[in-house]
Design a protein that fits this description.
The complex is a heterodimer of chains A (about 110) and B (about 120). With about 110 residues, chain A is an all-beta fold. Chain A contains no helices and eleven strands. Chain A has strands at about 5, 10-15, 20-25, 30-40, 45-50, 55-60, 60-65, 70-75, 85-95, 100, 105-110. Chain B contains no helices and ten strands. Classes of the chains: A mainly beta (about 110), B mainly beta (about 120).
Chain lengths: ~110, ~120
């Protein structure tokens, strides 16, 4: 069974710092990988989706990379802001209905 | 455009009561998913609907859980005889392209269920 791990579980940084969140998965046979942010009471917001044939995706200050063969993905956040404070989840898709989530990294950006 | 909506946002119930949770997917999305997130844990898949195909119920934890979907629109998740371990946030997601690498799931805000 696919297992998804996110490190660190929690991260606290001062405003303006660049940071990297890590995600690893055990089975490289994936269709895609998604990064989400979760805010209390607001469900999940999709940030980036990387298809299995892609290496990275960028959206604004966010950049996600995928190394499928080694089972790793990183989410890079540039020039962090207090509004970036949230829990970040990665999830890998192995079938139409098989989306496996990590337990997330709780990010706090200190003003 | 409108995203995935869920109601109610919060539900408090007594042990043994039945509850019904609602999900309105994004219009035109053929695939709909239900997940559960217990406190401090990751998301667990519950059930998947795709068009008029038979739903994949493999994630439902017990026969107290059931779900229905009307065509490609609203879905309801029903939990009968609720137990305290059913307390969780129930999330619904929809997708326009569930097959292959273009499957991007969009989530609703969730329903927080508390069973006393």
């Amino acid at each position: 069974k696919q297992e998804v791990t996110q490190i660190p579980a929690a991260l606290s940084v001062p405003e303006g710092e660049n940071l990297v969140l890590n995600c690893s998965f055990t089975d490289s046979a994936i269709y895609n990988l998604q990064w989400f942010r979760q805010d209390p009471g607001k469900g999940l917001t999709s940030l980036l989706l990387i298809q299995s044939s892609q290496r990275e995706q960028t959206s604004g200050r966010l950049n996600a990379s995928l190394d499928k063969s080694s089972g790793r993905s990183t989410l890079y956040i540039a020039a962090s802001q207090p509004g970036d404070s949230a829990t970040y989840l990665c999830a890998v898709l192995t079938g139409a209905n098989n989306l496996f989530f990590g337990t997330g990294t709780r990010l706090t950006v200190i003003p | 455009g409108a995203g995935v909506s869920q109601s109610p946002s919060n539900k408090v119930t007594e042990k043994g009561k039945d509850v019904e949770l609602r999900c309105d997917p994004i219009s035109g999305h053929t695939a709909l998913y239900w997940y559960r997130q217990r406190l401090g844990q990751g998301l667990e898949f519950l059930i998947y609907f795709q068009g008029n195909s038979a739903p994949d119920k493999s994630g439902l934890p017990s026969d107290r859980f059931s779900a229905e979907r009307t065509g490609e629109s609203v879905s309801t998740l029903t939990i009968q005889r609720t137990q305290q371990e059913d307390s969780a946030v129930y999330l619904c997601a929809s997708s326009s392209n569930p097959l292959g690498s273009y499957n991007e799931q969009f989530f609703g805000p969730g329903t927080r269920l508390t069973v006393l």
